[in-house]
Amino acid sequence: MKTGVRFRRSCTLGFALITLLGLSAVAAFGQTIDGNVVGSVTDTSGAAVVGAEVTATNLATGVVANARTNESGAYRFDHLTVGTYSIGVKMTGFKTVSEKVDVQLNLTATRNLTLQPGAASETVEVSGTPPTIDTTTSQLTTTYENQVLQQIPSASIGTGVLNASLLQAGVGSTGGVGAGSGPTVGGQRARMNNFTIEGTDNNDKTVTGPLVMVPNDAVANFTVIQNNFSPEFGHSAAGQFNQVVKSGTNAIHGLVYEYFRNRNLNAVDRWRIRVCLRILVTTITVSAGRWADRSSKTSCSTL
User: Which helix (H) or strand (E) holds 90?
Assistant: First the structure.
């Protein structure tokens, strides 16, 4: 009887543990495909404004997220879809303030706003969008937006946006040495990287490396995390290569492009020039020797 009770308790505990792990996995999945915005709201004297209504409006879709400042005047928006947002603050006795912010993949942007005395019907709009710098974590994260991915001279097929990671310190090419495909991060092997698309595993289980390549024009944000990444990533000890694709907006839009590749458009390789010059000099030398030999035979035959 006691054995049966212990067995049921063990099964119950095991089921509860599996359920918790499953829920944590679902939560972790959602944290790898978006960004966050945090900040504080103060008045002109620097005092915290408590209970202010803060909204984050996606300018492309019109989706609005709501929050209120706490007792220290701080607010926070988690799991915002990648894009440009307008952060607005309303409070009785103060003018309404709005400021734009770019929400980037796997980064937390900070926007501190100051309210000025006046009617709430008056709006103070802060122009300009400062760069997104994540000061909330020590992990080394570099995010590339679609505009950057289109402007840098990288191939749109093959390795695609992965070429962009070679621009940052600590990331280099393996030179075709060792198992796995993709860049090397922090001197570790390429097979130690982790590749995801929209938070979904994109690892080739055979030789390691990315399984599916997304064209540069279809990528909204591409992020490379080099170290100290949070537990929701895991999987590998080297770099985390995460990308999200473009999504729909309220405006009708599209893109048509042609990808043309020809070796005559490539930059000339210095090593190849040297080889070609050596071949040319050798050919000229051999040809000159044959001509000289033929001339001597002709002169001898005429004597």
Answer: strand 83-90
- Answer yes or no: are the C-beta atoms of 108 and 37 closer than 8 Å: yes
User: Average pLDDT, stretch 119-124?
Assistant: 73
The letter for the amino acid at 293 is: D
> What is the average pLDDT across 61-77?
95
Local confidence band at 75 (pLDDT 50, 70, 90 cut-offs):
very high
Q: Judge: domain 141-245, CATH 2.170.130.10.
A: yes
Confidence of residue 287 (pLDDT cuts 50, 70, 90): low
CA distances from 144 to 108, 147, 223, 254, 290 (A): 15, 8, 6, 21, 60
Distance between CA atoms of 81 and 252, rounded to whole angstroms? Answer: 19
Instruction: Please tell me the distance from the alpha carbon of residue 127 to that of residue 40, in angstroms, as a whole number.
Output: 18
Q: What angle do CA 132, 146, 55 make, to 5 degrees?
A: 45
pLDDT tier at 57, thresholds 50, 70, 90: very high
- DSSP per-residue string spanning 140-151: -EEEEEHHHHHH
pLDDT 10s digits, 19-54: 444 444 444 444 468 899 999 999 999 999 999 999
Give me the CATH code for the 31-126 domain, please. 2.60.40.10
For residue 245, the model assigns a pLDDT of 87
Distance, CA of 7 to chain centre: 48
Taking the C-alpha atoms of residue 199 and residue 243, their distance in angstroms, rounded to an integer, is 8
Cα-flanking dihedrals φ and ψ of residue 108, to 5°?
-115, 115
Give the residue extent of every domain in the chain: 31-126, 141-245, 267-302
For residue 288, the Cα-to-chain-centroid distance in whole angstroms is 59
